[in-house]
Design a protein that fits this description.
alpha+beta, 7-stranded mixed sheet, 8 helices, 7 strands, disordered N terminus, RelA_SpoT
């Protein structure tokens, strides 16, 4: 995967050797030029979504006094990873199948301050007419067995092109800062052990995930208490 670098996404073209000539369908060979134009559409979709997120972030900060979005990261899936995923799905290697069956070619991670901010953004996405929420997988309410927590959304973003409007799919992963730290550390540990992690480490990772969630909840309670005290102080001043 190529992640955001400065203001540009680095896009690699697809080559026949990414698949292996024996497995490469003749139809896909004929469509390589078409496919090499597709990542640009996903890049434009991510830029369009980033602009929308920027507006949302600014409005919510003005409304609530703080921005619920700490930071974002974007990436476009590597061609080889896309084709490997298509093989695992057992679908024909065609450009149409890439567009219709692989939903995470373009990806965005949104890291929020609190869990409630994640669901606030989800409801906002659902209400917008310029975004289509296609699928939601809630790994916060129902964490994965290893303790992974995140809210995954597949949505579509419209691109107004000369040929007309084209809706491009983007996968969004929304996490809190604590969840993002846990996921990053879990990735580092699995990479170091080449996925052969001792059994007791799995248990400790799950416990760490539960601790991260507890920390999120504690910080939320503290925020509510601070906001309540601030509101009471302002009310007292106004009544004097």
């Amino acid at each position: 995967m190529k992640e955001h670098k400065g203001s540009q996404l680095m896009i690699n073209p697809i080559h026949p050797q990414d698949i292996g000539t024996r497995e490469l369908a003749d139809e896909l060979l004929l469509q390589l030029n078409e496919w090499n134009n597709v990542p640009l559409l996903y890049q434009l979709a991510l830029e369009e979504l980033q602009n929308k997120i920027k507006v949302i972030k600014t409005e919510l900060k003005q409304l609530n006094g703080y921005s619920p979005i700490e930071h974002t990261k974007v990436r476009i899936k590597e061609p080889k990873s896309i084709l490997d995923k298509m093989k695992r799905k057992g679908c024909d290697l065609t450009v149409d199948n890439m567009l219709n069956l692989i939903h995470d070619i373009a990806g965005m991670r949104i890291v929020c301050a609190f869990v409630k901010d994640i669901y606030l953004l989800l409801e906002h996405f659902k209400q917008r007419s310029d975004i289509q929420v296609l699928e939601v997988k809630d790994y916060i309410k129902d964490p994965k067995p290893n303790g992974y927590q995140s809210l995954h959304i597949i949505l579509a973003v419209p691109l107004i092109l000369l040929e007309g409007t084209r809706w491009m799919k983007v996968e969004i992963q929304m996490r809190t800062l604590a969840m993002d730290f846990w996921a990053s550390m879990e990735h580092i540990l699995f990479y170091k052990y080449e996925k052969q992690v001792p059994a007791h480490v799995h248990i400790e990772l799950k416990e760490a995930s539960e601790a991260a969630y507890a920390l999120d909840q504690k910080m939320l309670r503290i925020q509510k208490e601070i906001l309540s005290d601030t509101a009471n102080s302002e009310s007292t001043l106004l009544s004097q």
